[in-house]
Amino acid sequence: MTELVALAVILFLTIVAPLIVIFYFITRWKQTREISGDDERMLEELWALSQRLEDRIETLERILDDEPTSHRRQQ
């Protein structure tokens, strides 16, 4: 009887338990492949911020290019 229990435990630990873990993580991976609403909003905010920063950089470059200094040649 104890040999049967030991065999059942060994089979569970070597076959069933790893399959349960693998299927659990496959399911979690499929669920997280989609972007959540919060992530989408954050990406939109980051995109808007990057556009504003790009505009600022372009404005600064225009201002610096219009100045009579030779800052570009010093680099």
Structural write-up:
It is a single chain. The chain has 75 residues and is mainly alpha-helical. It folds into two domains: 1-34; 36-67. Helix content is 87%, strand content 0%. It has three helices and no strands. The longest helix is centred in the first third of the chain and has 31 residues, at 2-32. The chain starts with a helix and ends with a helix.
List the helices and strands and how they pair.
Elements: H1 2-32, H2 37-66, H3 71-74
If helices are DSSP runs of H or I spanning 4 or more residues, what is the number of helices?
3
Largest sheet: none
Number of domains: 2
Q: Structural class from helices and strands?
A: mainly alpha
Mean pLDDT: 87
Question: How helical, in percent, are the residues?
Answer: over 70%
Computed Rg:
30 Å
Please indicate the percent range of residues in DSSP E strands (runs of 2 or more): under 5%
**Total beta strand runs:** 0
Order of helices and strands: HHH
Which runs of at least 5 residues are low in confidence (pLDDT < 50)?
Answer: none
Q: In whole angstroms, how far apart are the ends? A: 84 Å
Query: What best-fitting shape do the alpha-carbon axes yield?
Result: rod-shaped
